[in-house]
Amino acid sequence: MVPHLITALTGPINELEARILDSMPAIERWFRLEWMEHTPPFYSAVDLRNAGFKLAPVDTNLYPGGFGSLTPEMLPLAVQAAMAAIEKICPEAKNLLLVPENNTRSTFYLTNLQRLVRVFTQAGLNVRLGSLDPELKTPKTLRLPDGSELVVEPLERSQRRLGLKNFDPCTILLNNDLSEGTPKVLEGLHEQYLLPPLHAGWGHRRKSRHFQSYEDVAKKYAKLLGMDPWLIHPMFAHCGEVDVVDDAGLDCMKTHADALLGKVRRKYKEYGINEKPFVVIKADNGPSELGICTVRDAKELDAVCQRVRQKAAAGGPVLSDVIIQEGVPTYERINDAVAEPVVYMIDRYVVGGFYRVHAERGVDENLNAPGASFVPLAFAEGHHLPRPGERPGASAPNRFYMYGVIGRLAMLAASYELEATDPEAEVYE
Length: 429
Fold this sequence. Notes:
The chain is an alpha+beta fold and 429 residues long. It is built from 8 helices and 18 strands. It has helices spanning 12-22, 24-37, 75-89, 107-122, 207-225, 250-270, 301-313, 396-420; strands at 43-50, 55-61, 95-100, 126-131, 140-143, 149-154, 156-157, 162-163, 171-175, 193-195, 236-239, 279-283, 293-295, 322-326, 332-334, 337-346, 349-358, 373-375. The strands form 4 sheets. Strands 1, 2, 15, 16, 17 and 18 form a 6-stranded antiparallel beta sheet that branches. The chain has a 6-stranded mixed beta sheet with strand order 5-6-4-3-9-10, covered by helices on one side. A 4-stranded antiparallel beta sheet has the order 11-14-12-13, sandwiched between helices. α1 (12-22) packs across α8 and α5 crosses α8 (396-420). The longest helix has 25 residues, at 396-420. It starts with 11 loop residues before the first helix and ends in a 9-residue tail after the last helix. Residues 4-10 have low confidence and may be disordered.
């Protein structure tokens, strides 16, 4: 079942669901034409927020780490998508080197690795794990809660290739977001396929670029359906070169936050939404120890900056580049806990999803935080085909199809983004 929406099931979300289902042939043709021109990321995960009056992505991860939360029923979809992706990139592929995060103590993350190994093994590849940890000198066995084991081995780099002892892969799959920068060992690998490419890592990537690309995609898609793109797009502003330690850039943040709150206020008035808008301030270059803060008035930024200064004085990270994003509340709940859908994709295919649930967070807060749990059962019927003609809000496959459409829009935006930032892109005079 789809978790009960706190908002009435007669609002714009159901209108959007009905419009998407009615336009399914046009939507699928539109995606098909887009993928003829653009290359999807190898895999991706998109966090969505369903406010009842709008549905929008708030984060797109190109190194997803939650494959273990997909239901077993969805595995065939993942295997089939993996086969299609590998066949397109390297049809003769035999060996796949999977490079994980260095922190392999998390059982949640280990289950993700286990699932990835299983998917790509069933897709017809020999899969082994190679660690970027320079301290790892010999193979290390990792034990999982179900009693199974994974072995992580030290990488071996030659002049032009990367592999393991007695293992020379055609393809290297990163499950490490490179938020600490690009390791030298991954550079100059021109004889092997490196997926995703290095410029997809957080050392290069910026959320503001992604959401600019998403805005372009949302406008195209909204024109196709004859709808307001705001219903699927979180407005945002970018403020670079911020230094909260000496107040440089604080005025920029206040100005942008105030302007964005004003824009959202006008949209709420247009749609008769009787809620107080908020914006979310977060680091522009990916995951950050700084965290994510919610602001309902630009004046609140003084207190936010004071907390950041205290963290910086204690040796914490310094905020230097931020994205200010329209806050999209989530009115979905599971067992009275706030929840948000997460859609998982391999290549251009939706392969599953789950709800991220957090009992201690509010509808306007970040749920991707310690204490979150994951409920795949909400999408247990996600592998069924959508059912046009059913009453909006009544069918789990229909709701899941709508989530998958918005997830694919964010994935398409990621492909636009990566093409625009490709350092090796062909230049035509």
